[in-house]
Amino acid sequence: MDKGKTLGGEQQKYRIRITLTSRNVANLEKVCTELKRSAQSRNLKVSGPVRLPTKVLRLTTRKSPCGEGTNTWDRFEMRIHKRVIDLHSPQEDVKQITSISIEPGVDVEVFFKE
Hints:
Layout: E1 6-7, E2 10-11, E3 14-22, H1 25-41, E4 45-62, E5 73-89, H2 91-97, E6 106-113
Antiparallel strand pairs: 1-2, 3-5, 3-6, 4-5
């Protein structure tokens, strides 16, 4: 059966998983609420956003360039936040939902399942 064909007069619905990642929590939450609001306005079944554990990438380096002197260290870290939203909708609706303005620094991945 071809994808996107109608089943008994109704379009085939896909399970769509949207994964959002960002270093900035405020931008990430803003995009999540916009996606959820636009999906609910089209009366789609929405679950999420599910907050996945934050990845903390740490890097520790010596302050002294030559290696002599007091052992002092710089500690840098970058936090990566991740959210998952699941939708049940036809493929055409996903194009309209994801056409919202996405904040800078937010990465979006869309996966389709039948």
